[in-house]
Amino acid sequence: MFSPSQPPESLFASLQQVMDSESDVRDDLRTQVRVLERVLRSLQTALANIHMDVAEIKAVATGPTVEHQFAAAKQEIAKLKALVPDAQFFRFYPMFSGPLQTACYLVALKVYLETEELVAATHVAEVLGVPIEATSNTSITGFHIPMEDFLFALALLPSELSRLAINSAAQRDFQRPARLLNFLQRLHGGFQLLNLKNDNLRRKYDSIKYDIKRVEEVVYNIKMRGLDVPAASA
């Protein structure tokens, strides 16, 4: 039978052990998060080369540098996962939710650059080696990417793609902006189907319309100048 009382020295000593253990976990996580963030910055830099020459977009997205960095990101995420104690995922998740959102976004960007379509959640899970809540009908309690963070990652796409539309027009790829606009409108329409209750996600969704407006202006200017006719038909 358990005693209802405990000496103060014993109680506070045990509590200090718990606090020390949690502090050690947080220190280890902070160190690993910094490593992961460095890998993701390198990956973003590699993918940013799409703006230098839009004719080489697929070559950049499928090139060895990008593939190597994604493999490195997967490895670092696995190391991060190993540091999170069982059944304490949500306790520590705020420490690394940002990098995981960025990783999801970069996978989504890569897939769009390759296919001009929206990434599947199952593909993101495969590339990163982390299950995504959106791919399961049951609750996931272990290390995973929550559905709202996956959606936030998708909502990051329009900003980069609106920039791509501007740079495409500047490099005389006059058909790409219209395709980008079509994709962004479809993505925005998908978000409109959702009842978003997360404030950060809702604000990010609201910003998509401004990215769409920028691409609409690019497409409008191309049409007004009669530049939207394919070169073969000109």
From TrEMBL:
It is found in: Cytoplasm; Nucleus. GO terms for biological process: RNA metabolic process. GO terms for molecular function: RNA binding; sequence-specific DNA binding; single-stranded DNA binding. GO terms for cellular component: cytoplasm; nucleus. The keyword RNA-binding applies. Keywords: Cytoplasm, DNA-binding, Nucleus, RNA-binding. SUPFAM superfamilies: Translin. Signal peptide: none annotated. Gene3D superfamilies: Translin, domain 1, Translin, domain 2. It comes from the Eukaryota. Belongs to the translin family. This is Translin. It comes from Catenaria anguillulae PL171.
